[in-house]
Amino acid sequence: MAAIKGKNTKPEITVRKALHARGFRFRLHDEKLPGKPDIVLRKYKAVIFVHGCFWHGHECPDFRWPKTRPAWWRKKIRGNASRDELSIKNLQLAGWRVAKVWECALPKHDQNCVTQLSGLTKWIVSKRNEFVMGDKNT
């Protein structure tokens, strides 16, 4: 697991490129904020987490529980999800607006997915507190 990247993953870079193409400027992985959000847009008081479906336990077709060491993996993935929720709660209490972008919501082979991220870009300039891209509702 030491070889697994936690920062600058392909989905994260895809979102960053699309936001940058739309003119948004941001900081990355701000360690001063709870959960070290992947993308921080201070001007809009908004943060974006780009979650991998496996590592954060997203209930989608891309997620499957591992067959080896199932108890260990359940504890690991549920722990990640619990930490995510605590970080989001703390960010919101501090006045930040929070978005989650799930890996499954991003096109697999399109690195220039500006159109698919239009909902996210609309959320950034809005006043809504939360946005989730990749759930059944979006």
Q: Can you characterise this structure?
A:
The protein has 138 residues and is α/β, with parallel strands linked by helices. The chain has a single domain, classed as VSR Endonuclease (Endonuclease, Chain A, 3-Layer(aba) Sandwich), CATH 3.40.960.10. Helices cover 32% and strands 15% of the residues. The chain has helices at residues 10-21, 70-93, 118-125; strands at residues 27-28, 39-41, 46-51, 97-102, 130-133. A five-stranded mixed sheet has the order 1-2-3-4-5, sandwiched between helices. It is globular, with a radius of gyration of 15 Å. The protein starts with 9 loop residues before the first helix and ends in a 5-residue tail after the last strand. The model has no long low-confidence stretch (mean pLDDT 89).
List its traits.
138 residues, alpha/beta, Endonuclease, Chain A, five-stranded mixed β-sheet
CA-based shape: globular
Percentage of residues in helical conformation: 25-40%
What count of domains describes the coordinates?
1
Going by CATH, the architecture would be 3-Layer(aba) Sandwich
Amino- and carboxy-terminal Cα gap: 31 Å
In CATH, the topology is named Endonuclease, Chain A
Total number of strands? 5
Radius of gyration using CA atoms only = 15 Å
| Number of helical stretches of at least 4 residues | 3
Succession of helices and strands: HEEEHEHE
For the biggest sheet, the summary is:
5 strands, mixed
So, the CATH homologous superfamily?
VSR Endonuclease
- The main sheet orders its strands as 1-2-3-4-5
Mean pLDDT: 89
